[in-house]
Specification:
The complex is a heterodimer of chains A (129) and B (247).
Chain A (H helix, E strand, L loop, with lengths): L19 H31 L2 H11 L2 H23 L1 H4 L3 E2 L2 E2 L2 H22 L3
Antiparallel strand pairs in A: 1-2
Helix pairs in contact in A: 1-2, 1-3
Chain B lengths: L4 E8 L9 E8 L6 H12 L18 E4 L2 E4 L11 E5 L6 E3 L2 E2 L2 H9 L21 H5 L12 H5 L1 H5 L6 H11 L7 H8 L13 H5 L6 H21 L6
The chains are: A mainly alpha (129), B alpha+beta (247).
Chain lengths: 129, 247
């Protein structure tokens, strides 16, 4: 009797296509690319603002192009997916318990949405919307 | 016995004769209340006595009979044939080397489990005569779910990080480390930190969450790992900000 364990190969490229749960995970991770790109747009906007009224005006005009609008819609969709998927796992990372009673996961998730709404409202108020 | 015939495609591997594993199909007449393990036992008893696989309790307690059933890591004693199609593919747990047929090599998991010191490390040792280490129900409830782990390693078969990084300590071992770290009678957290808080420990996990989805006992290793990341980060900043905290 000889031991000769067999090691099955694992694809380094297409492994995530083998299960729906892996595809959902990759979608969540990939959503950060759009958020990063949108942050880049904001930084460019700040730079253009520092260069004067004409540069700022040209930047605003560029934002209204069809390509820019399409990008922003994509970025918004991925930002929402990114935010909701991370909010939905917060009860796992930050469980709360009073005595023997755990706080329901829905309450922890809801508190994050409430915080999101309050912070967004505060920012909109500060910019005068 | 019902009239239903189930086709079981089983991945076979004989290290003495085979270069690589290959599927063999068996037709099994099955009863309404059978699980996949019953069908495999039927094959062993009636069709092919050379089939190798692990099982013991047949009641989802021992954790021996984990297999890939139609691509999903499951306990074969808990997978009812009535919930499965007429053609079922059965393979050894992924991410482990195949010893023979459905038997995998678990040495790596056993070493990693051992490395996180999955046992109570009390402040002071007590003899049996000195009595128990007392604990309130509230203290118990903080970690009770993690005590339900049966070391079946389905979570390792589901984890893509373990598949790609063989050094990763992995879900069950890290969940058990967390279980003892949360135990009010235990003071072994720093002794476990060298392994648990290392790059091969919690920081290798990217929170796919598959481990928690496949656990047959509802244990949540993904939660344990994320909570340990937070505790470890707090430790790091405290060590940095409070002089003399870490010797």
């Amino acid at each position: 009797m000889s031991r000769r364990p067999y090691i099955r190969p694992v694809s380094k490229v297409s492994w995530w296509l083998s299960q729906p749960r892996y595809i959902r995970y990759m979608a969540r991770e990939a959503s950060c690319i759009f958020i990063g790109a949108y942050s880049g747009v904001l930084v460019v906007g700040l730079i253009r603002l520092s260069q004067g009224a004409a540069a700022w005006g040209a930047f605003l005009e560029t934002l209204q192009s069809p390509v820019s609008i399409a990008f922003h819609l994509f970025a918004l969709a991925f930002a929402l997916y990114h935010t909701t998927t991370w909010f939905n796992v917060t009860p796992k990372a930050m469980p709360l318990q009073f005595g023997q009673t755990p706080v329901p996961g829905g309450a922890i998730i809801g508190a994050h949405y409430l915080g999101w709404i309050l912070v967004s409202g505060l920012i909109l108020f500060l910019v005068g919307v | 016995m019902s009239n239903r015939i189930v086709e079981l495609e089983i991945l076979r591997y004989n290290p003495e004769t085979d270069e690589e594993p290959k599927f063999q199909t068996f037709s099994v007449p099955c009863a309404e209340d059978w699980v996949v393990l019953d069908a495999i036992n039927y094959i062993k008893d009636e069709l092919d006595r050379t089939l190798s696989y692990r099982w013991s309790c047949h009641m989802a307690v021992c954790g021996s009979c984990g297999m890939m059933i139609n691509g999903e890591p499951m306990l074969s004693c808990k997978s009812f044939l009535r919930d499965l199609p007429d053609r079922i593919r059965v393979e050894p747990l992924t991410n482990f080397p195949i010893e023979r047929d459905l038997v995998v090599v678990m040495d790596d998991f056993m070493d990693k489990l051992d490395s996180v010191k999955p046992f109570l490390i009390p402040r002071e040792e007590k003899t049996v005569d000195e009595g128990e280490f007392l604990q309130t129900p509230a203290q118990l409830s903080k970690f009770k779910q993690y005590t339900l782990c049966i070391n079946c390693t389905l979570c390792y078969a589901a984890c893509p990080q373990y598949a790609h990084n063989e050094g990763f300590v992995g879900p069950a071992a890290l969940a058990l480390a967390h279980r003892y770290n949360l135990d009010s009678r235990d003071v072994g957290r720093s002794a476990r930190a060298d392994v648990v808080a290392s790059n091969a420990g919690i920081w290798e996990c990217s929170f796919v969450g598959a481990c928690s989805e496949v656990c047959p006992h509802g244990v949540d290793p993904a939660a344990a790992i994320q909570q340990t990341k937070i505790a470890s980060s707090v430790d790091y900043f405290r060590d940095m900000l409070i002089p003399g905290r870490r010797s």
